[in-house]
Amino acid sequence: MSAIHYILQGFETALLPLNLLYVFVGTLLGTILGILPGIGPVAGIALLMPVTYGMDPTSALILLCGMYYGAQYGGSATAILINTPGEASSMITCIDGYQMARKGRAGAALAVSAWGSFIAGTLSVIGLAALATALSKLALSFGPAEYFGLMIFSLAAVSALSGKSPGMSIIAVVTGMMIATIGLDSQTGSTRFTLGLQDLENGLAFPIIAIGLFALGEVFLTLEEKSQGKTEIIKLSGSTWMTREDWRRSAGPIVRGGVIGFFLGVLPGIGGVLASIISYATEVRLSKRPQEFGQGAIEGVAGPEAANNAAASGSFVPMLAMGIPGSVTTAVLLGVLIMFGIQPGPRMIDDNPGLFWGLVNSMYVGNVMLLILNLPLIGLFVRILYTPTGILMPLVLVFSVIGIYATDTNVVELEFLLAFGVLGYIFKKIEMPIAPLVLGLVLGDTLEKSFRQALILSGGDPSIFVKSPICLGLLLVSLACFLLPVVLPLLRSREIAESAENA
Amino acid sequence: MPLIVAGVAALVAALYFYGTTQIFVSPFADPAGPRAYPYLLVALMLVGVVVLSLEHLKARRETATAPRAESAIRWSPLLPVSAWTLVYILVFEWLGYPLATAIYLIVLMTVFNPGKHRTNLAVSLSFAVISYVLLAVLLGAQLPAGHVVEALTNHFRG
Predict the structure, then answer these.
(1) Three-class SS of residue A183?
(2) How far apart are CA B53 and CA A165, in angstroms?
(3) Are A138 and A97 in contact (CB under 8 A)?
(4) Which of A188, A394, A448 is closest, CB to CB, to B108?
(5) Do B81 and A223 meet the contact criterion of CB atoms below 8 Å apart?
(6) Cα B64 to Cα A269, A315, A487, B135, distances in angstroms
(7) Residue A184: its H or E element
(8) For chain B, which residues make up each domain, given as ranges?
(9) Is the terminal CB of chain B with fewer CB neighbours within 10 Å at N or C?
């Protein structure tokens, strides 16, 4: 079948009334959750995960992805109105978005954020469809050893870039991989690390860990921060329509931000943060009025917002084409795919064309839905900001408990949920990145399978991992990801010390 | 803090290593068997411990000239909230979802939304009842009614 046929088939899936409803519910809930203090897109997706049990996998992913874009927009709204980014990638939006709001142009800032996200999101979905199919064809030629190398590279890239300390990242990623080994060994049936508990024989369910680490961890942190002062909330002011001048100044940054964001989003670990920073820096350099940046320049909102949204779509490329998540959100979504029994990887597009094209085309629909929903209703949504955290956070705790209990009616799982919540809080406090842990957890099982399949192929000879040039190259790059940030400063300080001694 | 993390990670590696030695290996297993990959993870964890310790040494040299502020773990809100959540979980089936949730929420909201007792009470009770009716009664989600409610129901049924 031709690509056009698949695209049309995808639209057929995305435009099914039920899937349209899921896109609507996803974007609506996502926007609300993105605006709520302390709950980001990942926590939102984690909380909604139990709701998707029993749903068709395509519809479930459409719902969760809708929530992802919605939460991103919600996060931008808080960046503009209360100078608090909903997630790290909206950090740059705070600089000029908040200044625009203080000057009475909050409406225009929110509008350019919505239009920027819409245009860049739509452009990058086209890129996603083209690049993912091409990449999956390339990845089909990979054997288990190359696949092992690719997964190690993905883990190394995301881990090395997601935290300040490579050591902490290695420990986090290995912890995730260790958790993934709990339960019955899929190849021999031996039980591993179950501590004699029957509840652990099937391993720990992914939602328990995701909801614990992200939702509960975040709640504990927000309750702690609650006592440390209040944030000034700026009233929504100004029209949410952009003027001709606004459009003239924003069009270029939106397109440039979209392109930068998409290509950086494809690379594992880079994600929206760097994309929005680079987009902002590009706009400052290209602007005829660089002195306006930081004072409420609309280009400073348009570019980074477009880049941020395009990076989100870009991060779906490695996930859908090769089963390698490039960000923590796609790692959680990959966990959902695995939960539904779908094996992500290069064969996924061929084996499940309905899911792939339905999901890609639902992103177009989601972007349109976000625009229709957000521009007229943003005034209503921001009222959520006034909900006291002292009421909201206990409710999130109860929602988390309901989600896990209603699935298996097992109190032991709730105890694990609480334990992971405490772990999530501690990780955040000691600045240990959670993304590598989740990635290690999601990829752990597939990584072990590839590792063992490669050894079966080589008759137990481990040199198979260095005999394949692709695998060797990927392993060396992975090693460099971790070692360079540690070794280079050490060498530099030694050089400085030697030159000081010589002087 | 990095040294504590490194120490805990080393301990986890040691326990995991012990756990790996306890895995039953079938004579018909694949060449790697169920132990090879976990051993690899132990080695990787130790690499993490070494890298973190090296970073700590480097940071200690730097902080001698410029001290760095660290955000400390504040056990005061975490311990009571997690302990109260554990109590909620433990009595969840016995008391039942509506009753346990209402009590759990009232206490948390009284602490974190102080001075608004009526609002807290109204939100807690209405949330517990409405969510139970919506999820368990209308949507068929499996939430416990509780032994207390069951006993009362049986008592009145006679």
Answers:
(1) strand
(2) 11
(3) no
(4) A394
(5) yes
(6) 32, 41, 20, 58
(7) strand A183-184
(8) 2-63, 75-157
(9) C
Please report, as a single letter, which amino acid is at residue A377: L
| SS3 readout for chain B | CHHHHHHHHHHHHHHHHHHHHCCCCCCCCCCCHHHHHHHHHHHHHHHHHHHHHHHHHHHHHHHCCCCCCCCCCCHHHHHHHHHHHHHHHHHHHHHCHHHHHHHHHHHHHHHHCCCCHHHHHHHHHHHHHHHHHHHHHHCCCCCCCCHHHHHHHHHHHC
pLDDT of residue B6: 92
The C-alpha atoms of residue A381 and residue A290 are separated, in whole angstroms, by 33
Query: Chain A closest CA to B60's CA: distance in Å?
Result: 13
- Provide the ipTM: 0.88
- Asked whether A330 and A42 are in contact (CB, 8 A), the reply is no
Which A residues in the span 435-454 are in contact with B, Cβ-Cβ below 8 Å? 448, 451-452
Q: How far, in Å, CA of A275 to CA of B12, rounded? A: 36
Chain B interface includes A392 (CB < 8 A) = no
Give the residues across from A183 on adjacent strands: A192
Residue with token string 């346990």: B100
Structure tokens at B135: 């999820």
A459 Cβ under 8 Å from any chain B Cβ: yes
Report whether pLDDT(B69) > 60: no
Q: Are B30 and A452 in contact (CB under 8 A)?
A: yes
Interface test with A, best of B24, B89, B95, B107 (most A CBs within 10 A): B89
Name the token pair of A153.
Answer: 């590279």
Instruction: Give the pLDDT confidence of B110-130 residue by residue, as tens digits.
Output: 998 888 899 999 999 999 999
Q: Under an 8 A CB cutoff, do A171 and B9 touch?
A: yes
